[in-house]
Specification:
By secondary structure, the chain is α/β, with parallel strands linked by helices. It is built from 19 helices and 11 strands. It has 2 domains: about 100 residues, DNAb Helicase, Chain A; about 270 residues, Rossmann fold (3-Layer(aba) Sandwich), CATH 3.40.50. The chain is elongated, with a radius of gyration of 29 Å.
């Protein structure tokens, strides 16, 4: 909150003790006084203190108010010295309210602080340690409040508690922003290593277009029902989890793990999916399955098929994988429309919030996130069925949150006799770090998979699938 003049207001009640904090010991009080006594004397010492601490790190309200006054002066470019600190406190109406029974109040209090000045580098770790201990104490109290909340939700509330504890215990100190020159060296070193940080999708042409799936980026794959978004999501996840041997979390909100496994078997063994689903596998097809058993069972693909989950639930799954030494390198969510919606005034706002949360998960865990989404019916009503960004269902926030947007289109879905039957276009409609283009792949729905076209960019005519021959492939 800011005042009309743009300043952050000082604490309103200096003499109100923060009852959520335990009484600090004398060493902490001595350290706080030493830091404040130094910080109020010069701008250089103030900058050193502000790089190490924040106002909320101080245990006493009066100490926090003085430090906030120093912070306001420094942020506004004014010199920090005893007179300016006194003026700032007087302006806010706090000068004669700050004090201590042993140190006087107002100007006398500030004068006494100056006499207690000490080395900021020595004393600040003491203050930080006590602040962290208080933060953990507050987190534990908040966790108790969550435990006592009516309507306990096993999916979301434990993850809220974990995050409270992790946030309170992961503090590494308040440091100044580092110069960009350090990042320049890191980027150049990565270039020198010539190691692409992006995960390959399993489709070389697509990787050339988007640079693979990069850490901290959100890729949205949108399509109308039946176009192949679940197939391509599973194929990408299977490639990373099986061919690359990297842990992948596939959050399947639409299909069960058994259904996804049937597709993996069909795709890997090249056995028709319908035969596996109907348990009509021939002896020859059993032989095909036996030959790929090692590949099917040697995988780091993890499937969570619980329906209607939230991103809090998915965060919990990712943290659980990390705790067991299987830290996920990729998250695929199938799909946005089946997620539990946060409470909002409208569905559009709820979808917007989910899209932002998906991007937040990518940033928080440092992994690529592939979010599958459904396009609206406007595509079907146009003469040109090629999808547009505006076709993303219910919210433009999906487009805004995504780093890459891929839209799927199959001509033979609308024209079964199309000369392009068996082909699927991946339209790169948004690419924050690269070009917009179209990548064409081969749709083999009878095997539950999408594969790259051959080197001559022609499909294997024995393996392509007309839309009309596949039931339920999407």
């Amino acid at each position: 909150m800011t005042t009309p003049n743009g300043r952050i207001p000082l604490l309103a009640a200096v003499d109100d003790w923060d009852t959520d904090r335990a009484q600090p010991d004398s060493e902490v009080i001595t350290a706080e006084r030493a830091i404040l006594g130094s910080a109020i004397q010069t701008s250089e010492l103030a900058a050193e203190a502000l790089a190490a601490l924040q106002p909320q790190d101080f245990s006493r309200n009066a100490h926090r108010v003085v430090f906030e006054a120093v912070q306001h002066l420094a942020d506004s470019g004014q010199p920090v010295e005893p007179a300016s600190v006194m003026t700032e406190l007087a302006r806010a109406g706090h000068l004669f309210r700050i004090g201590d029974k042993d140190m006087g109040s107002g100007g006398a209090y500030l004068h006494t602080l100056m006499g207690l000045a000490g080395d900021i580098g020595y004393h600040s770790p003491i203050v930080v340690a006590e602040a962290r201990r208080n933060a953990i104490r507050l987190a534990l109290k908040s966790a108790e409040g969550i435990l006592d909340t009516p309507g306990w939700d096993l999916d979301t509330h434990p993850d809220m508690i974990r995050k409270l504890i992790e946030d309170a215990t992961a503090f590494a100190g308040t440091t100044a922003l580092r110069p960009n020159s350090e990042t320049v060296y890191e980027v150049l070193n990565a270039l020198e290593q010539a190691e692409d940080p992006g995960l390959p999708t399993g489709y070389p042409d697509l990787d050339d277009a988007i640079g693979g799936l990069r850490p901290k980026e959100l890729t949205v794959v949108g399509a109308r029902p039946g176009q192949g978004k679940s197939l391509i999501g599973l194929c990408i996840a299977d490639h990373v989890g099986t061919n690359l041997g990297l842990p992948v979390l596939f959050a399947s909100l639409e299909m069960t793990e058994e259904q996804l496994t049937q597709r993996r078997i069909a795709a890997t063994a090249k056995v028709p999916l319908t035969r596996i689903v109907r348990h009509e596998v021939t002896d020859d097809e059993w032989g095909l399955i036996q030959r790929v058993m090692d590949r099917l069972t040697t995988t780091q693909l993890h499937v969570d098929d619980k329906p209607r989950v939230s991103f809090a639930h998915i965060r919990g799954r990712l943290r659980a994988m990390a705790r067991t030494g299987q830290e996920a390198r990729l998250l695929v969510v199938d799909y946005l429309g089946f997620m539990a919606e946060p409470r909002n005034e409208s569905r559009q706002q709820a979808i917007a919030e989910l899209a932002r949360q998906a991007h937040d998960v990518a940033r928080e865990f440092g992994i690529p996130v592939v979010l599958l989404a459904q396009l609206n019916r406007l595509v079907d009503s146009r003469s040109d069925k090629s999808p547009l960004l505006s076709d993303l269902r219910e919210s433009g926030e999906i487009e805004q949150s995504a780093d890459i947007v891929l839209l799927l289109h199959r001509e033979d879905y609308y024209e079964p006799e199309s000369p392009r039957a068996g082909e699927i276009d991946v339209l790169v409609r948004k690419n924050r770090q690269g070009p917009l283009c179209t990548v064409t792949l081969c749709f083999q729905g009878q095997y539950g998979r999408i594969v790259s076209l051959g080197p001559d960019r022609e499909r294997d005519n024995a393996n392509w699938t007309p839309s009309s021959s596949v039931d339920g492939a999407k």
